[in-house]
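Tripartite tricarboxylate transporter substrate binding protein (Cupriavidus numazuensis), 319 aa
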Amino acid sequence: MNRFSAWLLAAAGICTMLPGPGAAQSFRQPIRVVVPQAAGGGTDIVARLLAPGLSRELGQTVVVENKPGASGQIGTQQVKSSPADGFTILFAVDHSLIIVPLTTPGVRYNVEKDFVPLGQAVRTYWALSVPASAPYKDFREYVTALKRDPLARTYGVPLAGGATDVIGQAIGKHAGVQTVPVPYSGSGPVIQAVMGGQVPVGLTGLPEAMAVYRSGKAKVIAISGNARSPLLPEVPTFGELGVGGLEFHTFLGFFAPKGLPPAMAQAFNAALRKTLGDPAVLDKIRQMSLEPAPTTLEEAGREVDEASRFWTKSLAPKG
């Protein structure tokens, strides 16, 4: 073997040890999933449920970190400012990503400009609950009460603005009266107020409403969405009851900073969908009164686009 041939073999050996284009786009260190809500809440619980499966499928440790504050802005902004290298991922509810920037001045992120959707995990709906002792047993009787009794026109909400305002205003318009939201510090306090008769009705996520519905301490009389929930098939949608424009749902999904390599986005999405196919994971999701929502990258992106258009129109100043 001459020197030139030996040099070529040595060079080839060195090249095989160097990372190729695909290696630079793989998950090669622990992944940090930022949840912009407090520990112990629904978003946090789902993130921690999915983390072991994602870790197994991606071959890396997945660590969940809570960065709550300012309706999800703090954690969301932190992920936006992180490198688009796949090692910092956001797991958030659509409210903090889509609605908060539309309703809160000074928010420094935009879901379509600053993030890449990696896939949805679960979805749920908004539920209208009344005390078990309420004089109205269904939505139509509640609307009758709204028309004749001003005291029935307040409703408890877990947050100010966004979906709850849209629902409350639509109910008021349907009844021909002015409804008044009463903000609480979360869905738990709203449900407690409903059970205690402190508010005539409450708007919360379906999981919180289901907990007291099963106990018999409150009744669910309507839900958002374009079809009845399989978790509560006996309860009609607002649309069925004649209140239009409330066909939306709420979703929890994963997002990366804009610029994430497509190969990494595909790998994460595949891992997520496989994790959501695990029977044990599915069983726990359904026990939480949530619906599993595995999506492709294209489906996730399309739903974000549709939600952004819907809320931009719905929350635009009237007049």
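The mean pLDDT is 88. DSSP finds twelve helices and eleven strands in the chain. ok done for today
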